[in-house]
Amino acid sequence: MVFTGDEFADGGGFIAKTLAAQKIKANFFLTGRFYDNPKFKGLIQRLGKDGHYLGPHSYGHLLYCDWTKRDSLLVSRDEFTDDLSKNLSAIGNFGKQFAKPRYFMPPYEWYNESISKWSSDMGIQIINYTPGTLSNADYTTPDMKNYRSSEVIWNSIIEKESKSPSGLNGYILLVHIGTDPKRIDKFYNRLPELLRLLNFKGYQFVKIDQLLN
User: Fold this and answer.
1) What is the CATH number of the domain that holds 204?
2) Where are the extended beta strands (E) located within 39-192?
């Protein structure tokens, strides 16, 4: 389980409580703005204390490349490096055990070969969510053309698990730690049910460094 966050954290406490109750370790890729937000300090400390993986998601949630021309960069190498370095510093402020995260989930989960190389040059490996479900659409609001309800998202996960030959083995399933207040139908509220179901089916939840190692 992977959770990303930037400006919203309304599901943070509920998610942390759910993971603790089911004894699951998850992964949180948060922007530097999230780490530096005083309102979220207690939540981040709890996530770290509970043993979850804390990683970077850029400092300012930058869009690295064009949506339609992916090879067209929208940031320079210096801008990228400075932004990611600020994100890493913000993580390090929560303890030396978090000072050198190895894995990085890019903002918008959108990047190209140049971003991958620049990350590697900094000693950071890019990861992304596994496609095939609509879990990453839990940020959408009713006024958006791509809006997906929690029921639609839930069904996409269950269908993928049941119809794929490998199920969700090795899957990186992304959910947001918080969403815009305009989205009342919060998918994270269904997290306890989802985790119980997948546990019942025999899945184990691990931190990203365990999965990729």
Assistant:
1) 3.20.20.370
2) 53-56, 103-104, 125-126, 174-176
